[in-house]
Write a structure and sequence with these properties.
With 110 residues, this protein is of the alpha+beta class. It has one domain. The chain contains three helices and two strands. A two-stranded antiparallel sheet has the order 1-2.
């Protein structure tokens, strides 16, 4: 039990240090667009492409021998179609490094 608690403590300590890579999207056609517009466009792209992704996944299943260990490819197709759709609407990925605040461990006054 002590070992589990010790490992959990080390993991928590290591995860609180360093930088985090965050992916944001900016619209090159409309620079004033923000998160609300991105969420709306992404929702519409998912709704528009769900049927197409399901049809592609069904075609994949029909073209291959079924296996009890195979996974559905619908999610893969849907993600690809959504990425293409939001790119067509002007959204581009922008990598942003976010610096996590460093925790200060100051000695307790006694």
């Amino acid at each position: 039990m002590r070992r589990v608690v010790g490992i959990a403590g080390v993991v928590a300590l290591l995860s609180s240090c360093g930088t985090v890579q965050a992916v944001h999207y900016r619209n090159s056609a409309n620079p004033s667009y923000g998160q609300t517009e991105f969420d709306r466009d992404r929702y519409e792209c998912r709704r528009e492409n769900t049927a197409h992704a399901a049809a592609q996944a069904a075609a994949d299943r029909a073209a291959t021998t079924p296996s009890p260990y195979s996974i559905s490819t619908m999610g893969i197709h849907l993600n690809n179609l959504v990425e293409q759709c939001i790119a067509a609407r002007g959204w581009r990925k922008v990598n942003v490094e976010e610096q996590r605040p460093q925790r200060r461990h100051e000695p307790c006054d006694t």
